[in-house]
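Subject: sequence -> structure tokens, single chain

Hey, anyone have a minute? Need the predicted structure for the following. Not urgent.
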Amino acid sequence: GVGANLAGPAVLLSFLVAGVVCACAALAYAEMATMMPAAGSAYTYSYIVLGESIAWIVGWSLILEYSLVVSAVAVGWSGSVMEFLNGLGIHIPHALAAGPHAGGIVNLPAVLIVFLVAGMLIAGTKESATLNAVLVIVKVLALGVFVAIAMPHFDAGHMQPFMPFGFAKQMGPDGVERGVMAAAAIIFFAFYGFDAISTAAEETKNPGRDLSIGIIGSMVGCTVIYIIVALAAVGAMSYTAFAQSPAPLALIMRELGQGTASKIVAGAAVVALPTVLLAFLYGQSRIFFVMSRDGLLPRALSKVSPRTGTPVAITAFTAVLVAALAGVARLDEIAALANAGTLAAFVAVAACLLVLRKREPQRPRVFRTPLAWVVGPVAILGCMYLFWSLPHKTQLWFLVWNAVGLVAYMVWGRRGSLLARGQEA
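Reply:
Had a minute. Here:
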């Protein structure tokens, strides 16, 4: 919905641009993750290749990314729950279904789903991974149902004008920054699940094979699916009819007179969106875990449960943090700020790829990024352009977050780090 609101039918181009930039970043991730199959993702690569101070900035950005992604997805899930329940004639009081910005008190469904997923993670990743796989299949099947029903209603007239807000970010008369790139900078949010895959590298049985397949496969699959679904959506109905909806696919089905399909799509989102929460809440706890293990955050955060092997304290702490945010925050604003943190991490990973290619060209690489000196710069410059395309307010908040992070590093991180104590592993 938000992508179409910012770009119109040209949201198809937004998905393509975001997909290409993300694909280049994914290729860099695949090489780095197989060279360094340790927990921590971009933070760990930066720590080893670029040094502790850069790694701190990357880790601090990842904390922002993961916290906000989980919060944003929880808010989106809540919107799907409302759509699904309304279709069944069940209505939850507005005060308990929206934050203060929307005239409510707290978004209770968003808060509850965060704690439910955190409980699954604390119970053990092996158990939650099986359910995760089942829910992903449910989600893909539901999207298949949507495309199969919406495509016969395709009307080329809905694609005109194709690019109503232009390509580059520009301020509209309503104070909203729109354009193909403005939309790409927001919907980029939907592409970076491979980042969460790499945070779990330490727990992967065969990182050389599994990580490269998981990272690149997820990237290609996501891009193809998103473009097909977006084409079906903007072709079946004018984007103005669903751009503001928290559950646009279910709305399109209902408007096409497909009440049962609308319930199926909304219901699938209700049961499948927690897979995204699971992946990112898992990744968030691992970022905290590895930064704590390096001494940059309190060491108590890296303790794991002897029974399940999971970091219980940090998972619970993360859940409280993101649930509080999900209960009161606006979806579009937290998604944009999450993207800022992600883009910073992607730039760092692509830089690590190029630095190691120059510094250690003979080092064994289980997976070698093809055309590294093309892929790396495209990832870096593409991410910078996407960051520039984010709302101005988002860029300022990101700078404030990192200013606070640098103060935290000076006061605590640098003093407590293993490097500062001469205990580097």
